[in-house]
Design goal:
four-stranded antiparallel sheet, seven-stranded mixed sheet, 11 strands, elongated
Length: 121
């Protein structure tokens, strides 16, 4: 079994910053890509940012220049530093991880339970 747990969400004023963390644990051989997605009320879940095991990154156009994704491979953890937050960034933020698992050595995607980010105007 693999668990993915997010933390760091909360309420912040527009222009403020938050840092999200996501840790994977359990029957892990290795983790390939990790990423952050978000879902606002009444909208589909959308990609925010992804990072490979080699630290190559990809960002949604809406967050480029404001958000930074990073990871600590030794801790199986991914971070999302969010600066210059806007009300339209309000959403539940989900982490996912592409994990090679014990004992099958197969690769599966796992999702966290989500963390709420609310940006007030």
């Amino acid at each position: 079994q693999v668990q993915v747990v997010e933390s760091g969400g909360g309420l912040v004023q527009a222009g403020g910053s938050l840092r999200l963390s996501c840790a994977a644990s359990g029957s892990i051989v290795s983790i390939n890509a990790m990423g952050w997605y978000r879902q606002a009320p009444g909208k589909q879940r959308e990609l925010v940012a992804t990072i490979t095991s080699g630290s190559s990154t990809n960002y949604a156009d809406s967050v480029k220049g404001r958000f930074t994704i990073s990871r600590d491979n030794a801790k199986n953890t991914v971070y999302l530093q969010m600066n210059s937050l806007k009300p339209e960034d309000t959403a539940v933020y989900y982490c996912n991880a592409e994990v090679r698992t014990i004992p099958t050595m197969r690769v599966y995607w796992y999702w966290g339970q989500g963390t709420q980010v609310t940006v007030s105007s």
